[in-house]
């Protein structure tokens, strides 16, 4: 559904060419008639930013502007529609932005301080269910000073606020076309981003053209983009091979990535670009369940799960084992679960259970969703079941449901153990800890831990230098290991498959793993 120097690793993308012995490719290209077609399996659920807290951000990043954003290579928010932004106090409770001069929306409306205030206030007022209003929990009020200055007054210290403003959910919209009391529903978009949306067919395609009035950091290396939405990865890959699209983003299965990388003769003219992803998968234990509520049971499972085998068998190396809730590439990442439990060990797991008076195999039910995280989810849970039952210490029943039913179930507390995924809103360790703790945990299972919610998170949010909060997040992860209420499993890798004549793929993914279409171009010669 992102940082600092330590994040530079996540910004470095390795290109794995599928053609051996090809000549050097020119990095330069003319912008004349540069049209690029990109395929994805993630289509927008809405065109209105006030309702968007999902994959809709993909399109929005390219047609709207935010005050701050992530230029290529940046790991912290930098001005976009704004000329400058900064906290005006030492406690990170007042954030001031001055707009670039001469900005306007694609319909000609002026972008001024009032339009910015309107855009943000509208999100809070509409408070769309499942929408992004929850991201603005620290916001008290928005103040305008003249035509070009906006001050965000926070109700509590929140140094992550610039990262929140950088999410596509905080896109600027013209008051004249986006009602204050309801979502826009005419199927159109009016923004000030690098592109304008010329045509949109839900579930089929979006046609983007360069916005002639755009003023921002994006250097557009193409003139237009078609985004095609596919129902599945197989037809998307087929379209790539037939050169009906130039690149793919989101939706490649592990099998397809491996096939594209290994079968060079069958995939001549294609390349695969890999980068570390920030999406994670983990198990959630419900403390209200008789078995999951026992710390010894949770610790025994943590002692048994073999992440290396899980990744190798199910994801064929397209994911990485994860030993903390903060993934690799994010400041504050640790290997706390490995440090505490080490390698999988049946003997240690048996001892943990025996010490708690548990000498019979523990019967448990694990739930997963069938249509949210891809076709590999069922094999993943089958492998978890195999591993736990092979120890002789557990008997696991697997159950599944479509996302809507699944979400209702875990929100009601119906599931003893269930699998969840997390796509970060922004690249900061806060976004991998805060959503999962407290009475309103996004897992639907309240997790009250006062040291994290009342001490560690508030103190870290007073620190505007996000590289200086590692201590708080290391301690938070130690608490998560002690409780084993959440068990991290793996973090994903991101792959872009493209024709070998397409350049810029290695620069196109921003720290929010949203594709910046303007980086793609067709090479002049190759």
TrEMBL record:
Domain Solute-binding protein family: 77-440
Residues making up the signal peptide according to the UniProt record: 1-20
Keyword Transport: yes
Primary subcellular site in the record, as a coarse category: other
Annotated compartments: Cell envelope
InterPro entries per record: Peptide/Ni-bd (IPR030678), SBP_5 (IPR039424), SBP_5_dom (IPR000914)
Entry keyword set: Signal, Transport
Classification via Gene3D superfamilies: Dipeptide-binding Protein, Domain 3, Periplasmic binding protein-like II
Alphabetical list of SUPFAM superfamilies matching this protein: Periplasmic binding protein-like II
Domain of life the protein comes from: Bacteria
Chain segments annotated as transmembrane: none
Pfam families in alphabetical order: SBP_bac_5
Similarity section: Belongs to the bacterial solute-binding protein 5 family.
Protein name according to UniProt: Peptide/nickel transport system substrate-binding protein
Organism: Streptomyces clavifer
Lineage: Bacteria, Bacillati, Actinomycetota, Actinomycetes, Kitasatosporales
